[in-house]
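Troubleshooting: if your tokenizer reports a length mismatch, compare your output against this known-good record of 746 residues.
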Amino acid sequence: MKVPMTTTSATAQIPGADVPTPLSQHEADLMPRILLVDDEPRLLSSLYELLRDRDYQLVTASCGKEALAHLARVRFDLVLLDLRLPDMSGHEIMDFINQRAIGADVIVMSGEVGIEAAIGALRRGAYDYIRKPYSREELLKTVANALQQRRLELANERIASQLENSEKLYRYLVDSSPDIIYTLNHEGRFTFVNDRAYQLLGFSREELIGKHYSILVHDEDLERARYVFNERRVDERASRNVELRLKCHSGSGQDRTFNNTLMTISLNSIGMHVPDHEVKKLEFFGTYGVARDITDRKRAEEVISYQAYHDILTDLPNRMLFKDRLGLAVIQAKRKLTELAVMFIDLDRFKLVNDTLGHVKGDELLQQVALRLKDCLRRGDTLARQGGDEFTIVLPELRDREDAKAIADKFLECLHKPFDLDGHEVHISASIGIAIYPGDGESIDELLRHADIAMYQVKALGKNGHSFYHNSMLDVSHQKIALEQSLRKALEQNELEMYYQPQIDVITGRIVGAEGLMRWNHPQRGLLTAGEFLPFAEENGLMLPISDWMIGALCRDMLVWNQAGGEAIRLSLNLSPQYLDRGDFFEKMRGALVRYGISPDQIEVEITENICIRNPQYAIEQLNKLCQLGVSVAIDDFGTGYSSLSYLHRFPIHTIKIDQSFVKEIHDEHGHYPVILAIISIARGLGLHLIAEGVETDVQARYLKANGCLTMQGYFYHRPIALPNFINVLQEQPDQAGATLVARQA
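Known-good structure output:
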């Protein structure tokens, strides 16, 4: 998009809009001319629309070459520049402006998060650096300030050109300068200072005249100031630059005091001499200086530097700063012959919170976790965020391992308390791995790697705990890597198999269904349960092909049962969230049913309630398509997630299953277990079928039966068995229609 610009008129319209009355040449010349440079058409158009009605002459460029052509041909007051262009970088355009001495100010707008781009722009003289996405108010204010600053600077330049002609005009204009202008005598005492000193520092002219310059200079910068002001340079070496911090006046009247408010000032000093024609030498007369306020620029540089080494979300040190501090701690420990500890923390159940409540709530949880962890640390300890839900800690000058253990226990205790996320009460825990220098490693990478391995050991043992690294863990880690590699071959070599755990009607004592449990016949390690290998499948992107295999395996088992003349059986698939989110899930299911000749009414799909939360509308569409095909739906592990009862009305659900974690709490046949009673009441009230999982004792079975749950599964009745044995068990029973075969990835 380009906006035409001529030497006689200027408009503020984009192509296709109503064209207003053209401005006169004089009016156009008075309007600031701004060049907008961005390769993204929508952003360029949006920027143009934002500025079009503000009495600016606007010219656009969508690439670097086009921008250079405009700059070479036309004078601009301001350039709004994107750093990343298709043919060159914004830094190259700024170099072109500086090399050609083009008097245009530059405001950089960039989406780059690296510190190098920002510092590179500021070093090339950029007026300001704005990160994308920027707010409307921020951009308009920055543009207005830049143009105002430019007007002041241009006025200051005009002042300099008129000083030779009029001392009176000089005095008036100098006092209007945006910079502090001053002169010193040969002793370094003020002989002149303009009114800007009062505006910036709070010192009036009367308070400074006759006083030594050192009363303004910060104590730490006095030595540098003396060196610069006491030099007696002549000729072209008479001019020099120095950055000094000047004190601000905080008192009033005769009581002049200086507080700790500091301003960084760039001073340009020029020695003045009186020529002596008789002796042919220069006599030092004094110093003329211009002090420009660069406080905002220095603060901006400090902010950019801070953000480069800190996590924006939690304000903790990031990975780069953590490694730097760990390296210093290692050097110090080596020098003092002391130990230090490195901890690697991974939050348990964080992904569940993120998926169910959304990323905004997940970010709030991370911020609260960071605050709690910081409160547990000693002075000198460093807590950093590695990324995601992972944190690292370095504990220097460790007396013994008990110190590290005590802090790890504090971490677990502080995380045990519930987190409040706008009314959602969330419970999480953490897995903590600990490595000790120098016994567990002497390098930064080695310590972090071993702490990470120890953390995964905690994960494997049930999470919510801490563990010190031991060399034996390295062997376990290598075994996990080997397990991941062999799992990829298991599908090709037909090593996976389905086992079935019967479900019992407690009134008749008959088997009315079964839950399919995936097993892996590992060539070296023997029969592995799903819990021993499915976590690796989820981490390594193998859930989709494994789920495809499961659909096919269950349909094949169903076909074997049908061909054996068995009863009509319903098969239930427990789907992972990854598989349900896949776009071709419905077609995969329908294709398998057609290929093996299985009726859809023999299939029931099991989902966890958290699938309903993360993308409810998409899940409803997918499940409704299955129901139209004839497949029914069940909710597995009911009550363990963050679901709302409203989803039971919105989703086409036929069955809910009581999770075994609730069943395990039953220890007294006559006790009161309100969660189980509530789930039974929900199922009864909505007319849903109900199944209790994980029943292992007679007490549990009697309590569930007494309160209305009549279908159960668990070790109390049957352990999982292979398909041939399961078929034999079913065939030994009297005929009964409507038996249910439930299959899951567990």
